[in-house]
Amino acid sequence: MRRARSARIAAVGLSALLAALALPACAPLYGAEQAVTLPPPATDAPKAAGTSQIAVLAAGCFWGVQGVYEHVRGVTKVVSGYAGGNGATAQYETVSRGNTGHAESVQITFDPAEISYGEILRIAFSVVHDPTELDRQGPDYGSQYRSAIFFADESQKRIAQSYIEQLNAQHAFGKPIVTRLEPLKGFYPAESYHQDFLVRHPTHPYIAYNDLPKVENLKRVFPDLYREQPVLVNAR
After folding, report:
1. CB-CB contact of 45 with 155 (8 Å)
2. Which residue segments constitute the domains of the chain, with CATH numbers given?
3. Res. 10: pLDDT tops 50
4. Which of 59, 83, 170, 181 has the most CB atoms in a 10 Å sphere around its CB?
């Protein structure tokens, strides 16, 4: 199902605000997931100088996921988009129907000398989303909001699978992790109005209530990986 429109939003003032801004209406306010302090992955790629690498993750509404990783040291670019389906259906309104195979995702470009793939996954599980929620995150529900890691190669698959097994064995969440591992077949950037959404609209009610707390959790839980100035898709 697509995000609920203004009829599902209890506050009439919020509906009016969204209409005035000509922005897509979000679901009812819910609140950010609680941060979880997790151990680092036992299996990871060592940090080493080299060419930029890519990680593609799905962890609920891409506004907040992108917003968090834009504040991560070693990340050089984060793009909101769609993964899991094909290019013909990679549009917001189509993906929002929940039957395209796509998930709202982010493509993270990072410097492997500064941050490892495993550290990116640790941030995802710790402060970005709740990996025990099936086909939903917070107020958003449907397979397009699933928790997924789109691995680009066998190394990424091995690190992700090992970390999930590690966290499940340690009962890190009290419930099993439902994050899906899917081969990356393509990533399709989202429409321009979705890019840098958290930074451009910090007072948007959905962002303020659901996503800004995630950025604060990043700063608190991972102070060594947090940077104050975000890296943006569209420089201001």
Report:
1. yes
2. 51-221 (3.30.1060.10)
3. no
4. 59
Residue of 61, 83, 115, 149 marked catalytic? 61
Residue with tokens 């009439």: 12
Tokens of 21: 């801004």
The per-residue pLDDT for range 116-130, each reduced to its tens digit, is 999 999 999 999 999
Specify whether 61 is catalytic: yes
pTM above 0.85, yes or no: yes
Dihedrals phi, psi of 155, to nearest 5 degrees: -65, -50
